[in-house]
Design a protein that fits this description.
Length: 375
Amino acid sequence: MKRFDFSSLAVPGVQQLKPYTPGKPIAELEREYGVRDSIKLASNENPLGASPLALEAIREGLEDLWLYPDANGFELKQALAGKHDVEPDCITLGNGSNDVLVFLAQVFLQPGLEAVFSQYCFAVYPIACQMVGATMRVAPALAADSGMPLGHDLRALYQCVGPETRMVFIANPNNPTGTWLDGRRLKDFVGSLPPHTICVIDEAYTEYADSERLGNAASWLGEFPNLVVTRTFSKAYGLAGLRVGYALSNPGLADLLNRVRPAFNVNSLALAAARAALEDAAFIDRSRQVNAEGMAQLRSGFEALGLSVIPSAANFLLVGFDRDAGTINEELLRAGIIVRPVANYGLPRHLRITIGRPEQNRRLLEALDRILETP
Ligand SMILES: *Cc1c(COP(=O)(O)O)cnc(C)c1O
């Protein structure tokens, strides 16, 4: 069909918007490169697959697919309320936590208002803010030679906060760096914000992290009405394809988020699977264990190859090369290995690599060894 350019009709925020760059799907790689048996270490999915209890719940839920889902997600919210020791009206369910990040921007931001985030933050924050025409203030990250290279700098973030700042986005641990903030320092930061500035703490990888060090922001909700914590079932619970995440907040704030939430944004299988996954402590334990071992295996493997590795509290590592990483990525694709280039984050010499199962990690290290031999 003849293409017609509608961009001048789009609202200003959309005119300049560049869509999110996702990890390459396995089927696409195999179609384009004619390779087989490929592995994907690109999107921080759980290499063990989905929680078995969640899969069982999905099988049981299939019969009811003709019915609309419970628009209020009653049972899942009950379970989440119990887990986090909050009332169910503190919860906003999302089609992935990406969904609730967009609700936050829609409800609280518009042209003339500001959002603050760090350099090397999760790409969805600027997309959500730009879409609604908010002004974005980007705090410089910690230096590459600091104790937490490329990590969030709370002092720099605080300096970006002004009278028009409605929102600060912080992922702990952060994606794509894997870096983290100390829980006590983060809590002090939230407490230092003015009441009209909402602090969104994105805990997508919290199940992998050491809660002693990073803290549990959900337990601070009673103290800070301007705190929002987001969580997801996409990472440790292994349900990325199902799309379910949520925000925890003060009920007054959740009420506003739920006004813009499409009524049936979380499907019935996702509601049932997420609820079952919450009970699957054994799966989370095993996932943490496999991740810790894989982290050690990859870290020492990368270091043996002379690569620089950023400290990570998540299920991936950001690896630095002494040259542009684009060609290395291309060679890995040819070898049937999908990792994540991060040039779009301003990191052209890095690759973000999800920690896989031991044999996947070994295959990646062997491929990298081969690729790096040829200058
Ligand atoms: C993966 C990820 C999410 C989760 O996205 P979903 O929409 O829940 O799949 C949120 N925040 C960060 C920082 C992530 O890396």
